[in-house]
């Protein structure tokens, strides 16, 4: 590689790791991208050259050490390279959620003091231009895809390739300086600034060092025995810390290949083509995949449905025996082998998981049934628990000790303690963030002088296994009027185990009982409606249908029956519910960009619905402002039915009127 220093400086920073990978596994694939239906690949040597050229070009264009560079777009190799190029130039990469509206971007760009922005396409350029007058520090915009941008003013806008060409031409002038900066890099240097989702207010800029990311990446990758021949599909937001640790940290530490899908619409097809060995998805994606499978099975022939039912029942039985440490009989093994031929193998291929040897889910609790389904067909699906401030990993499941109700054991290097009074989980690790940018008060509130960080979650360590079980957000855990425990997230996650329910919000703190808002899953319920000859014109009409209400009522009552068997949470049974006339939406401020519920916003926007639930009304008129995809505002109104549901006596199945 032109200008590459002869001696590798070390492996403490991403630029140093890139040089090491180029030297040691230069011919192996590092990046892949599907464009126009064709997969393109870059080796580690090529990625090193591309990244260096961009870094030189950025310096030539005026980027200074310590400045911030925004990275905006869907998962693209050039955007991943841009983060390391910014580090080579001494700058700080700041990935931003690509689906953020311009006003949301403005806050982050201004707060981070962004000087340069490297974006994917015209859509992101247009957002920046619409708020540029409010961002006096933004000097240059670099775009990867030139489509639609020919007639724009290019005084401060540049194609990605042009900056690389400028950099290559400036090698003799600027190369020694880049080499010196890379060699002098240390683990204490700032690696990236990632913004929290902002569930309770404005997003906070989490400053993470090179050590935070790289040491955590090494520990977690070693835990799962990841190697250079592994591969992963990068499709989750680049601004999310999980994508950064998987697609950047672990990939650079172990030298495996990161593939980017052509689009969100082709993701599943691209997943099947790539066949990754390492895979991560939040529970809703695993749920959606399973929903798709079940819908297809409903439409399959009688023989195929019978085979599916028989072999899936056997897979669950085998999984239960394995979890209990029981030996499998010869008949069990033969039947499972046949199931692999007829059902499990084709199913894993359909899901794009034929080669997955390590799979993770996190972000929300995953239902035992959903979890068991994937593990029973031979997918090594596990849970991890973490947060941005921890560089993701706090706990993770070992391969040989996966417990459905827990989130695993502490990741190597992580210490955990539980506050005796509040039950809040605290941790300390090499991944603990440096600070919240420009917010010393919040930093001090979150991280104490000894490095312990408050997760904000309530939980406990299982005495038998030493694994962590999370109950809920500590601030959301409360008491019902009778003094029993109220843990809304735990109940919401149990409800979302049902494919008919996409999202739910449970209320009950300091009240006599729990009540809920429900969002139906339009795909699952829509398919059910078609099979049952139920006509509907859209989400609102389907959500209000009496038979849909009956189905959701059955789901809630089944959840109540399950809660009745939990001495700690039996008081959280739901007594009344309504199905919202619109889906909760991040554009309306009801969800974060990582799809977490903003409880305070929902409580304010739908205060009259909550009042109706607790007031005993049978119907309530709902009207709320919504934001359409093109940015226009409008209102959606509807007359919503409110239903009572059955509750159950603790540890009994005898129902009683709610």
Short description:
The protein is of the alpha/beta class and 658 residues long. The chain is 39% helix and 23% strand.
Topology record:
Elements: H1 14-24, E1 29-35, E2 38-43, H2 44-61, E3 68-72, H3 77-88, E4 92-96, H4 102-112, E5 114-119, H5 122-131, E6 140-143, E7 157-159, H6 160-169, H7 171-184, E8 190-195, E9 205-209, H8 210-223, E10 231-233, H9 241-254, E11 257-260, H10 267-274, E12 278-280, H11 283-298, H12 302-323, H13 330-351, E13 358-361, H14 368-376, E14 381-387, E15 392-396, E16 409-410, E17 415-418, E18 424-428, E19 435-436, H15 440-446, E20 453-461, E21 468-473, E22 478-479, E23 485-486, H16 488-495, E24 501-507, E25 514-520, H17 522-531, H18 539-543, H19 546-564, E26 574-579, H20 599-605, H21 607-615, E27 619-627, E28 633-644, E29 647-648, E30 655-656
Parallel strand pairs: 1-11, 3-4, 3-5, 5-6, 6-7, 10-11, 12-13, 13-14, 25-26
Antiparallel strand pairs: 1-2, 8-9, 9-19, 14-15, 15-16, 17-18, 18-20, 20-21, 22-23, 24-25, 26-28, 27-28, 29-30
